[in-house]
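Notebook entry, structure prediction.
Reason for the run: the old model in the group folder had no record of what sequence produced it. Starting over properly, with the input documented here first.
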Amino acid sequence: MRWIPGIILVLAVAGCAPKLRPDVANLSGLNNAQKATVSAWLEKTSNFRPAGDSDCNCAEDIAYFRKNGINDQAKPQPDYRPYQKIGDFNKDGQVDIAIVMFSTTASKSDLPVLLIFNGPFEDPAKPPAMTIKLELPMRYMLFFEPGRDPRLSFGIAESDVGCLLKPKGQAYVEDCDPGF
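New structure, fully documented this time:
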């Protein structure tokens, strides 16, 4: 019997794929490695789920951003998600993700959390670079402006209420000055 090395490798890799939670498998925009990292965090912290568009109570804002973009100079963002951003937030050449998680319990101590995971996504057990408890109205959304000076922020659309998340090494610092 003759073994074909390529087939053995494909079978070995296919058998090692991490199992994703259904609520993570359905997230659009994330690749499988990013989904595996989010799924691994949720397995350790089972009382949370990824926030979805309907959690925002901001359907008009979402529709506007998808059609027109975030500001007057922006392009339309047809796949805009208020609670999920993908981009190089800390200017290290790696794609990072920011995602909001909502509690699955009725406890007030389980506030929504914003997680920022820095790339690369080689180890699914990698902890978030930053976790922020969001003691905020659910109308808060994530925004990311890529470019020479990328800006990751969360706030209320069309207002000066919010916070910038500035990279500092492999972590981030909240800058919640009014008029951000």
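Summary: Residues 58 and 139 are 6 Å apart (CA to CA).
The old model has been moved to the deprecated folder.
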